Amino acid sequence: MKVNETFFDGRRFLSLFKKEWMENWKKNLMRIVVLFVLFLVWDLFMGYDQYKYGNRYDDYDAIWPPMFFMLMFTLYIGACLSASYMTEGMINKTGKLSVMMLPATPFEKFITRWLIFTVGFLVVLPATFVLADWIRFTVYSSLYPEINQMALFPLDDILAHGSWTDEDLNFFPLILTSSWALQSFFVLGSTLWQKNSFLKTAVAIFCIVIVMLLIGYWSTELFIPSRFYIDVPDKYEHVSEETQMDIVAVFFSVIALFNTVLAYFRYKEMEIINRW
Prior knowledge:
This protein is mainly alpha-helical. The chain is 71% helix and 0% strand. Helix 1 packs across helix 5 (106-143), helix 3 runs parallel beside helix 7 (172-192) and helix 7 packs across helix 8. The protein is globular.
Protein backbone atom coordinates (compact mmCIF):
# COMPACT_ATOMS: atom_id res chain seq x y z
CA MET A 1 0.00 0.00 0.00
CA LYS A 2 1.46 3.32 -1.10
CA VAL A 3 1.24 6.30 1.24
CA ASN A 4 -0.09 9.38 -0.51
CA GLU A 5 0.21 12.95 0.73
CA THR A 6 -3.02 12.76 2.72
CA PHE A 7 -2.44 13.81 6.32
CA PHE A 8 -5.05 11.39 7.63
CA ASP A 9 -6.93 8.61 5.88
CA GLY A 10 -9.65 6.79 7.79
CA ARG A 11 -9.25 3.44 6.06
CA ARG A 12 -5.49 3.49 6.42
CA PHE A 13 -5.81 4.49 10.07
CA LEU A 14 -8.17 1.60 10.83
CA SER A 15 -5.81 -0.85 9.14
CA LEU A 16 -2.91 0.49 11.19
CA PHE A 17 -4.92 0.39 14.41
CA LYS A 18 -5.90 -3.22 13.76
CA LYS A 19 -2.28 -4.13 12.96
CA GLU A 20 -0.96 -2.51 16.16
CA TRP A 21 -3.54 -4.30 18.30
CA MET A 22 -3.15 -7.70 16.67
CA GLU A 23 0.64 -7.65 16.93
CA ASN A 24 0.64 -6.67 20.61
CA TRP A 25 -2.60 -8.20 21.88
CA LYS A 26 -0.85 -10.71 24.16
CA LYS A 27 1.23 -8.00 25.82
CA ASN A 28 -1.75 -5.68 26.18
CA LEU A 29 -3.94 -8.50 27.49
CA MET A 30 -1.31 -9.30 30.12
CA ARG A 31 -1.35 -5.69 31.28
CA ILE A 32 -5.14 -5.76 31.52
CA VAL A 33 -4.99 -8.95 33.58
CA VAL A 34 -2.39 -7.41 35.91
CA LEU A 35 -4.63 -4.38 36.42
CA PHE A 36 -7.63 -6.60 37.15
CA VAL A 37 -5.67 -8.77 39.61
CA LEU A 38 -4.42 -5.63 41.36
CA PHE A 39 -7.98 -4.41 41.90
CA LEU A 40 -9.22 -7.85 42.91
CA VAL A 41 -6.47 -8.49 45.48
CA TRP A 42 -6.93 -5.02 46.95
CA ASP A 43 -10.72 -5.38 47.18
CA LEU A 44 -10.59 -8.83 48.76
CA PHE A 45 -7.88 -7.86 51.24
CA MET A 46 -9.51 -4.59 52.27
CA GLY A 47 -12.92 -6.29 52.35
CA TYR A 48 -11.69 -8.89 54.81
CA ASP A 49 -10.01 -6.19 56.91
CA GLN A 50 -13.18 -4.06 57.03
CA TYR A 51 -15.95 -6.65 57.24
CA LYS A 52 -14.51 -8.85 59.99
CA TYR A 53 -15.39 -6.13 62.50
CA GLY A 54 -18.72 -5.30 60.89
CA ASN A 55 -19.53 -2.13 58.97
CA ARG A 56 -18.36 1.09 60.66
CA TYR A 57 -20.66 3.42 58.73
CA ASP A 58 -24.42 3.61 58.64
CA ASP A 59 -24.91 5.23 55.24
CA TYR A 60 -22.29 3.55 53.02
CA ASP A 61 -20.03 0.53 52.71
CA ALA A 62 -16.84 0.72 54.80
CA ILE A 63 -14.72 -0.52 51.91
CA TRP A 64 -15.63 2.35 49.61
CA PRO A 65 -12.93 4.78 50.89
CA PRO A 66 -10.00 2.37 50.31
CA MET A 67 -11.51 1.37 46.95
CA PHE A 68 -11.73 5.02 45.95
CA PHE A 69 -8.11 5.51 46.99
CA MET A 70 -6.98 2.62 44.80
CA LEU A 71 -9.08 3.87 41.90
CA MET A 72 -7.48 7.33 42.07
CA PHE A 73 -3.99 5.89 42.58
CA THR A 74 -4.39 3.66 39.53
CA LEU A 75 -5.94 6.46 37.47
CA TYR A 76 -2.91 8.72 37.97
CA ILE A 77 0.00 6.29 38.27
CA GLY A 78 -1.40 3.67 35.89
CA ALA A 79 -2.18 6.27 33.23
CA CYS A 80 1.38 7.57 33.40
CA LEU A 81 2.81 4.07 33.25
CA SER A 82 0.63 3.20 30.27
CA ALA A 83 1.64 6.38 28.42
CA SER A 84 5.31 5.56 28.93
CA TYR A 85 4.84 2.46 26.73
CA MET A 86 3.86 4.49 23.66
CA THR A 87 7.22 4.15 21.92
CA GLU A 88 8.33 0.83 23.39
CA GLY A 89 8.58 -0.64 19.88
CA MET A 90 11.19 1.95 18.90
CA ILE A 91 13.83 1.19 21.52
CA ASN A 92 16.37 -0.18 19.05
CA LYS A 93 17.22 0.58 15.44
CA THR A 94 15.38 -2.49 14.17
CA GLY A 95 12.14 -1.45 15.84
CA LYS A 96 12.50 2.13 14.68
CA LEU A 97 13.13 0.97 11.09
CA SER A 98 10.07 -1.27 11.28
CA VAL A 99 7.91 1.67 12.35
CA MET A 100 9.38 3.91 9.64
CA MET A 101 8.52 1.34 6.97
CA LEU A 102 4.84 1.22 7.92
CA PRO A 103 2.71 2.61 5.05
CA ALA A 104 1.13 5.38 7.11
CA THR A 105 1.75 9.02 7.95
CA PRO A 106 3.51 10.00 11.21
CA PHE A 107 0.24 11.47 12.50
CA GLU A 108 -1.61 8.20 11.93
CA LYS A 109 1.13 6.25 13.71
CA PHE A 110 1.16 8.65 16.62
CA ILE A 111 -2.61 8.88 17.06
CA THR A 112 -2.91 5.09 16.88
CA ARG A 113 -0.48 4.60 19.73
CA TRP A 114 -1.94 7.52 21.66
CA LEU A 115 -5.43 6.02 21.48
CA ILE A 116 -4.24 2.58 22.59
CA PHE A 117 -2.09 3.71 25.51
CA THR A 118 -4.09 6.69 26.80
CA VAL A 119 -7.74 6.45 25.80
CA GLY A 120 -7.56 2.65 25.85
CA PHE A 121 -6.35 2.76 29.44
CA LEU A 122 -9.31 4.95 30.45
CA VAL A 123 -11.64 2.34 28.95
CA VAL A 124 -9.94 -0.64 30.57
CA LEU A 125 -9.62 0.99 34.01
CA PRO A 126 -13.35 1.18 34.93
CA ALA A 127 -14.07 -2.17 33.26
CA THR A 128 -11.52 -4.05 35.39
CA PHE A 129 -12.50 -2.06 38.49
CA VAL A 130 -16.19 -2.96 38.13
CA LEU A 131 -15.43 -6.63 37.44
CA ALA A 132 -13.25 -6.90 40.54
CA ASP A 133 -15.92 -5.12 42.57
CA TRP A 134 -18.59 -7.58 41.44
CA ILE A 135 -16.42 -10.49 42.61
CA ARG A 136 -15.75 -8.75 45.93
CA PHE A 137 -19.45 -8.13 46.49
CA THR A 138 -20.41 -11.68 45.51
CA VAL A 139 -17.84 -13.27 47.83
CA TYR A 140 -18.40 -11.15 50.92
CA SER A 141 -22.17 -10.82 50.67
CA SER A 142 -22.32 -14.59 51.08
CA LEU A 143 -19.75 -14.62 53.90
CA TYR A 144 -21.21 -11.65 55.83
CA PRO A 145 -24.95 -11.53 55.05
CA GLU A 146 -25.62 -9.57 58.25
CA ILE A 147 -23.89 -6.45 56.89
CA ASN A 148 -26.77 -4.56 55.31
CA GLN A 149 -24.65 -1.65 54.09
CA MET A 150 -22.57 -3.86 51.80
CA ALA A 151 -23.04 -2.71 48.22
CA LEU A 152 -21.30 -2.30 44.91
CA PHE A 153 -19.04 0.71 44.60
CA PRO A 154 -21.07 3.67 43.24
CA LEU A 155 -18.94 4.36 40.19
CA ASP A 156 -21.81 6.24 38.57
CA ASP A 157 -21.71 8.77 41.43
CA ILE A 158 -17.98 9.20 40.93
CA LEU A 159 -18.55 9.93 37.25
CA ALA A 160 -21.34 12.36 38.11
CA HIS A 161 -19.84 14.16 41.11
CA GLY A 162 -16.34 12.83 41.76
CA SER A 163 -17.60 11.50 45.10
CA TRP A 164 -20.32 9.19 46.45
CA THR A 165 -21.41 11.74 49.04
CA ASP A 166 -24.07 14.36 48.34
CA GLU A 167 -21.82 17.07 46.92
CA ASP A 168 -23.04 20.15 45.12
CA LEU A 169 -19.73 20.40 43.28
CA ASN A 170 -18.68 18.05 40.50
CA PHE A 171 -15.05 17.07 41.01
CA PHE A 172 -14.93 14.57 38.14
CA PRO A 173 -13.83 17.03 35.39
CA LEU A 174 -11.02 18.23 37.64
CA ILE A 175 -9.94 14.65 38.37
CA LEU A 176 -10.05 13.69 34.70
CA THR A 177 -8.23 16.75 33.35
CA SER A 178 -5.53 16.67 36.04
CA SER A 179 -4.79 13.02 35.31
CA TRP A 180 -4.76 13.80 31.58
CA ALA A 181 -2.30 16.65 32.16
CA LEU A 182 0.00 14.45 34.25
CA GLN A 183 -0.24 11.64 31.71
CA SER A 184 0.66 14.02 28.88
CA PHE A 185 4.07 14.60 30.43
CA PHE A 186 4.74 10.87 30.19
CA VAL A 187 3.48 10.82 26.60
CA LEU A 188 6.07 13.48 25.87
CA GLY A 189 8.67 11.63 27.92
CA SER A 190 8.14 8.44 25.94
CA THR A 191 9.19 10.31 22.79
CA LEU A 192 12.31 11.63 24.50
CA TRP A 193 13.43 8.43 26.20
CA GLN A 194 12.39 5.05 24.84
CA LYS A 195 14.33 3.08 27.47
CA ASN A 196 13.11 3.36 31.06
CA SER A 197 10.77 6.11 29.96
CA PHE A 198 8.57 6.06 33.07
CA LEU A 199 11.48 6.33 35.51
CA LYS A 200 13.33 9.02 33.55
CA THR A 201 10.21 11.13 33.05
CA ALA A 202 9.28 10.86 36.73
CA VAL A 203 12.78 11.95 37.77
CA ALA A 204 12.70 14.83 35.28
CA ILE A 205 9.31 16.04 36.56
CA PHE A 206 10.50 15.80 40.16
CA CYS A 207 13.64 17.82 39.42
CA ILE A 208 11.71 20.48 37.48
CA VAL A 209 9.17 20.86 40.29
CA ILE A 210 11.92 21.21 42.90
CA VAL A 211 13.74 23.83 40.82
CA MET A 212 10.53 25.80 40.24
CA LEU A 213 9.67 25.73 43.95
CA LEU A 214 13.16 26.93 44.88
CA ILE A 215 13.06 29.72 42.29
CA GLY A 216 9.64 30.78 43.52
CA TYR A 217 10.77 30.75 47.15
CA TRP A 218 13.97 32.71 46.48
CA SER A 219 12.10 35.22 44.28
CA THR A 220 9.56 35.75 47.04
CA GLU A 221 12.30 36.30 49.61
CA LEU A 222 14.17 38.77 47.39
CA PHE A 223 11.42 40.88 45.87
CA ILE A 224 8.41 40.64 48.19
CA PRO A 225 8.53 42.18 51.70
CA SER A 226 7.77 39.87 54.60
CA ARG A 227 4.65 41.85 55.56
CA PHE A 228 3.38 42.17 52.02
CA TYR A 229 -0.12 40.98 51.36
CA ILE A 230 -2.35 40.93 48.31
CA ASP A 231 -5.67 42.69 48.52
CA VAL A 232 -8.02 40.66 46.35
CA PRO A 233 -10.64 42.84 44.61
CA ASP A 234 -14.21 42.27 45.74
CA LYS A 235 -15.31 41.12 42.30
CA TYR A 236 -12.99 38.09 42.52
CA GLU A 237 -14.15 37.11 46.00
CA HIS A 238 -17.57 36.26 44.61
CA VAL A 239 -16.29 33.79 42.03
CA SER A 240 -17.97 30.47 42.81
CA GLU A 241 -16.03 27.34 43.62
CA GLU A 242 -17.55 25.68 40.57
CA THR A 243 -16.17 28.43 38.32
CA GLN A 244 -12.78 28.16 39.98
CA MET A 245 -12.69 24.43 39.35
CA ASP A 246 -13.72 24.96 35.73
CA ILE A 247 -10.83 27.40 35.27
CA VAL A 248 -8.38 24.93 36.76
CA ALA A 249 -9.78 22.12 34.58
CA VAL A 250 -9.30 24.29 31.47
CA PHE A 251 -5.75 25.05 32.60
CA PHE A 252 -5.00 21.32 32.95
CA SER A 253 -6.55 20.67 29.53
CA VAL A 254 -4.34 23.32 27.91
CA ILE A 255 -1.25 21.71 29.46
CA ALA A 256 -2.33 18.28 28.23
CA LEU A 257 -2.98 19.52 24.70
CA PHE A 258 0.32 21.39 24.57
CA ASN A 259 2.32 18.37 25.73
CA THR A 260 0.47 16.06 23.32
CA VAL A 261 1.12 18.32 20.33
CA LEU A 262 4.75 18.69 21.37
CA ALA A 263 5.00 14.90 21.71
CA TYR A 264 3.64 14.47 18.18
CA PHE A 265 6.30 16.71 16.65
CA ARG A 266 8.97 14.94 18.69
CA TYR A 267 7.60 11.56 17.53
CA LYS A 268 7.65 12.79 13.95
CA GLU A 269 11.29 13.79 14.37
CA MET A 270 12.16 10.47 16.01
CA GLU A 271 11.53 8.62 12.77
CA ILE A 272 14.32 10.62 11.13
CA ILE A 273 16.87 11.28 13.84
CA ASN A 274 17.08 10.58 17.55
CA ARG A 275 19.01 13.24 19.41
CA TRP A 276 18.46 11.90 22.92
